[in-house]
Amino acid sequence: MINEAGFDGFRFDFVKGYGPWMVRAIQELRGLHGNKAFKPFSVGECWDGSRRIEDWLDQANAWSENPVHAFDFPLRYRLRGSMPSLSPMSPALLRERVGCCA
Q1: What angle do CA 85, 80, 72 make, to 5 degrees?
Q2: pTM attached to this predicted model
């Protein structure tokens, strides 16, 4: 996939559904851009609290030369809760506030 499709990274969804060793094995792959080898960038979706995310990263990155990263869902919730004005609005509410009728 790396060379044939031209991927230079991976997103691992629902990482609690399979072992961290699988992510580590993929992270150890190397791709080629022309004749130059590269390490893929990867991020995992560990939808949980900070401690669980850190534990998953520790396991996935054990003995790895190319560490995987994780989305910071606890930060997402803290930011979203601290800025209610940035919460998603329905199209009808947006039209009402902006004053357009599209």
Answers
A1: 155
A2: 0.66
CB 42 within 8 A of CB 12: yes
The predicted-structure confidence for 32-78, as pLDDT tens digits, reads as follows 777 888 888 999 998 888 888 899 999 999 988 899 999 888 887 77
Q: How confident is the model over 78-96, as pLDDT tens digits?
A: 777 776 665 566 666 666 6
Overall domain count for the chain? 1
How far is the C-alpha of 20 from the C-alpha of 11, rounded, in Å? 13
> Which residues constitute the domain of residue 11?
2-98
**Residue 15 in contact with residue 23, Cβ under 8 Å?**
yes
Sign of CA dihedral 22, 54, 69, 35: negative
Residue 28's φ and ψ, nearest 5 degrees, are -80, -10
